[in-house]
Amino acid sequence: MGQNSGVLEWSTTPTNRNRTSPDVTTETFHLSKLAQQRLLDNTTFGRFQVQTGLADFYWEASYYHPPHRKTSLLDALVKTDGFVIFLHGWNGNHRIWEDLPTRLIQAYPNLVCLNLDIHGFGQSPFIKEKPPIHQATLQAAMTAVESWLELINLRPTPYRATKPFYMFVGHSMGGGIIFYKDQPQWQNETYGCYMMSPSMLYHEIIRRLLFQLVGWSILIPYVTPIKNMVAQLVIWFAMNEASRRVKWEHGQYEDPFDTLSATLLGVSQSPKPSRTDWSQFRLVLGNRDMLVNPKLMLNFVEKLGFTPDQIRMVIGDHYFLSYDETSPISHKYNREIVLADLVAFCQQLSKKAAINLTCDK
C-alpha cells in the first residue's frame, strides 16, 4: 500500500469541493456517504453511531491549493504539519467561523483545517431527536470527536514519516467540550487546545440552573412562538454584537426542540473535568460576555492550574471574534488577535512535534 493510498481513501471522494479563496480549497464529507461508498466499514460506522448516538457526522476539510499547482487533499493530509479542528457552539454549525479557517491556512499554508458540525447540530444529527443525557454531555461530544478522528484514520497516523500536531479550537459549547479532552490516550501526541468563551458550567451554580430551566422550557409548550421567542432571546443575550451572518445562523433553529433541550441540559449537567495537565490550553474571554462570567471563569481555571500566560481578555461579548459593519470595532481587532494567536500556537506545536519525533527515534 503506497503512502498516499489505503487508509485515507475517504479523502479522494468528497461530497462537494469548492475554492473558498484563490489559494484555499474546501472539501466536504459525511460519514454516512463514505459508508455507502464502502470507503468506511459499515460495521465500524454502526459502532460509532451506537457509541455517540449520532446518525451522521459532517465536516469540511480546507487546505492550501495555490493557483496553477496540482494539489489534492490527500497530499495535504500526508504532508501537513498539523490538523486544526474547529468546534462550534450550541445551536450553531460550521459556518459560525466565517472565514477564520481560510485565513488561518493563508497565514500558515502547511495546515489542514477540519471544520465540524457536532453534537446533533447542523448536518451531524442525533439518531433520536432527544438523545439520552449521557450522550448529550460535553464529555460525550469530545469523545465523539476523538472517535471520529480514529474512524477516518487521522489518529493514529501510520501513513506518515512524521507526526502531525493537533489543535482543537472551540467557541462557547465547543470551547466547553475541550475541557473534557482525553488525557491518557493522547499522551504520545502533540496537541493544543484554544478555547474561546467556553460554556462549561460546573463552577457556576446559578447559570447551571438557568440553563437547565431553559432546556426544559424549550419543550413547554411545544409551539412555534416559544421557539421563536427563545431564538430571539439567545440572539439578544449571547450575540448582540456578533455579525449578521452569525445571528442569522443561530436564528434559523433548524434542529428539533428535543435536541436543543437535551444538549442544553447536557451542558448544564457535565461534571468537573478530571484532567491534571492544562499546560497546552489557551483561554480567551470577552469582558462583556453575558453567558460566560469572566470573573468566575478566571477563578475556575486558576484553581485548575492555568497560568497568566495561558489567558487573554479582549473587549467584546460572547461572540467577540465575529465582526461586520454592525459590530463594535473591537471585534475587528479581536479577529486579528485570534488569528495571530492561532498561527503562533501552531508554530509552537509544530516545533514541539518535531522535538518529540526526534526523541521517539
How widely separated are the two ends? 23 Å
Name the structural class. alpha/beta
The Cα radius of gyration reads: 20 Å
From N to C, what is the helix and strand string?
Answer: EEHHEHEHEHHEHEHHHHEHEH
- Write down the CATH class: Alpha Beta
- pLDDT averaged residue by residue: 88
The CATH topology: Rossmann fold
Which residue ranges are poorly predicted, with pLDDT under 50 across at least 5 consecutive positions?
1-6
Strand content: 15-25%
Helix proportion of residues, in percent?
40-55%
- Give me the side-by-side strand order of the main sheet: 1-2-3-5-4-6-7-8-9
Put simply, the count of helices is 13
| CATH superfamily heading | Alpha/Beta hydrolase fold, catalytic domain
Annotation, overall tally of beta strands: 9
Overall number of structural domains:
1
SSE inventory with pairings:
Layout: E1 16-21, E2 24-30, H1 31-36, H2 42-52, E3 58-64, H3 73-79, E4 82-87, H4 100-107, E5 111-117, H5 133-136, H6 138-151, E6 165-171, H7 173-178, E7 190-196, H8 205-217, H9 224-239, H10 244-251, H11 257-268, E8 281-286, H12 294-304, E9 311-314, H13 329-360
Parallel strand pairs: 4-5, 4-6, 6-7, 7-8, 8-9
Antiparallel strand pairs: 1-2, 2-3, 3-5
